[in-house]
Amino acid sequence: MHLEESEEAALAGEHGEIMQMAYRILAATGGASDAERLIPIRWAHLSGVNYNTIGGAGEEFLRSISSRGAKVRVRTTLNPMGFDADSVERYGLGDEFVSGQASIADSYGAMGVTQSFSCIPYEIFEMPRGEQIAFAESNAAIYANSFAGARTNKESAFSALASAITGKSPYSDLRREGEGATSNVTVRMSAKEPDELTYGMLGYFAGREAGGASSVDISGVSASAMDRRQCKAMCGGMGTSGTCAKFRFVEEGDRDARGSGGGSPETVEFDDDAARKVRDELDTAENGDVIALGSPQLGLWEMSDLLERLRGRSFKKRCMVFCPRAVKEQARKLDYVRGLERAGCEVLADCCTCLSPLLGSDKVDAVTTNSIKGAFYMNNASGVGVDLKPLAKILEDETE
Fold this sequence. Notes:
The protein has helices at 5-11, 17-32, 51-67, 95-110, 121-124, 138-146, 157-166, 196-209, 228-240, 272-282, 300-310, 325-333, 336-342, 372-382, 391-398; strands at 38-40, 43-46, 75-78, 134-135, 168-170, 185-189, 216-219, 247-249, 266-270, 290-293, 319-323, 345-349, 366-369, 385-388. It is an alpha/beta fold. α2 (17-32) packs across α7, α6 crosses α9 (228-240) and α8 (196-209) runs parallel beside α9 (228-240). Mean pLDDT is 94; it is low at 255-261.
């Protein structure tokens, strides 16, 4: 990977230890992804926020670099943390977790990072269409590349932080002009009567079928046929099952849908049977002790839609609704929060369903959710069973 003279100087330590560390990370990730060079970015979005995922070592690292003057050079936003500070005392999380999480937030704040604590930055900030960004949150990276017209690598926690500090990122295939990364497989969507759960399963299936490729083609459906909930579900599902960071919708027989070798990509069918197999893999419990909505977090439209669908009914069991703080404040002004709380919902900002200590195996045996992403992480990382069903079915079964 070619480096400019100033970048070589930073890599050699001429601009300080922290800048040297950041350029080392970018040089390593750029080399691994066959990047030609580094390019400027406009926005970085960081993972590595939840104390449940980075632990004491991560907290100590962030505290160390922030105390030594690390600063971000571009707009930088954050993924969810482990709790809503407004209600943390209700959940018995323990002093170590609470203090460690607070330290992580303070360290990012000292570096100049916007404390958005959201996995859906594309819904609370204006997306820079056609611009280069660096998103570590997998669903947000896929959404940016596939729906929003921006371009990002599928960043790691370290590479996104390095990009925030330097304002640069490796120029790999996902960033190139035009369609960027090519696909070796087309997934044909033929499942009947799809809902948001179906689209989440489609994303999960397509990400796995793509193998190690960075992009995959989807036929049999178009963006205009999907609502916001379905789009987010698809990006969230794809982000859990492989390295894929982009998809594009193609028409049957599209001659531009070419594999990297120049031939037509292999076509794989996503039909009702394929959907059933994905569901069987992730649906591991008959009932949930608690309902969890928000992985990815809910946006304002989804909060409004949920309230409208309830139509005066209330949940028969505890229901946790996760959203960004910016959305929660908007929803509060519009009286959505009060309406949802009257229906038995706990509306939580700054955190989400995935990897949250609020839904750990020490607190619940199983969770009811409509999220493929949430189901994957609860099954595989949190040790919690999952009762997986679409939102309409949750409302039918769990409200009165």
